């Protein structure tokens, strides 16, 4: 009897081992394309191709028809020009969460910033800086919009919305849910640098890079080992333009109604979902280093801040994120020297 039980245990162990091995040896499928003015990539493990590029493009197209202010017939464009106040599923979810995050960040993240974005030439409309700073406060503020059922209400018709600071992260989450609904559990989705990692890569965490903050050069700075987490990055170096002999960033401050000017170069936020990570990264870029450190500590958010201190480039990283940094990171030794150097 003992001999029989031993054989059974061995058989079960071997069976479990074979199942485990087979799950790690499934085929990696890679899909690439463009969306929302940037690139996307979807990589997943499966014994057969269950997700196609056509599936991904179809979903992203539906999101664009809802959230893209560059499409005149989109839901958000029609809301902005007051031809409708009805909002679809995508826009409703984005607006609701945006208002919540606006309140959490004391207005540092605000989707009613569209007039300012357009005024500085970063939006679909170019107002050539025809911005009345004395009256702009009437049109900017998340307390000036609200949703009742599936209808949006605005205190003034001139209020316009810009969801670019959260849309890519939201799109990543929508694709993530789609893959999970199709029983795909090991995958990585990347839309313009906003990323979600699910499961593992053959039993090991996915390796994600926080890049060095260079405009036209992609070089790894820190490598993170992530599983079932999102990472989003916002930076002052990403989208810039020259205005009156001065380089300005695409991130606009809902407080000053001007391009953000502070010593933050790059903000990376880790979260359970990419929509929040995207919005919090945008908010921190607007808040600046000191307020951002206080904010992530209070909210228990894992973050990496790369900032300028005189002629030096330093890093402040929360302990939870630091635990995920690979020692193979190109700038791992610099990170150790920089930790805690930020103002407390």
Q: Any descriptors?
A:
344 residues; disordered N terminus; T-fold; 10 helices; globular; alpha+beta
Detail the topology: elements first, then pairings:
Blueprint: H1 2-24, E1 27-35, E2 38-46, H2 53-67, H3 75-80, H4 89-104, H5 114-119, E3 145-148, E4 151-154, H6 167-181, E5 187-191, E6 194-198, E7 206-211, E8 220-226, E9 229-235, E10 240-243, E11 246-249, E12 264-271, H7 274-287, H8 289-299, E13 302-309, E14 312-317, H9 319-322, H10 332-338
Antiparallel strand pairs: 1-2, 2-5, 3-4, 5-6, 6-9, 7-8, 9-12, 10-11, 12-13, 13-14
Entry summary:
The protein is α+β, with helices and mostly antiparallel strands. The protein is built from ten helices and 14 strands. Helices cover 34% and strands 25% of the residues.
Radius of gyration: 22 Å
Major sheet: order of its strands?
Answer: 1-2-5-6-9-12-13-14
Task: Let me know the number of strands.
Answer: 14
CATH class category of the largest domain: Alpha Beta
- Major beta sheet summary: 8 strands, antiparallel
> Helical amount among residues, as a percent range?
25-40%
| Class by alpha and beta content | alpha+beta
> Could you name the CATH topology of the largest domain?
T-fold
Q: What is the mean predicted local confidence, pLDDT?
A: 85
| CATH architecture heading of the largest domain | Roll
Strand content: 25-35%
Order of helices and strands: HEEHHHHEEHEEEEEEEEHHEEHH
- Terminal residue distance: 67 Å
Number of domains: 2
Dominant shape: globular
Low-confidence regions? 1-23, 337-344
What's the CATH H-level superfamily name of the largest domain? ApbE-like domains
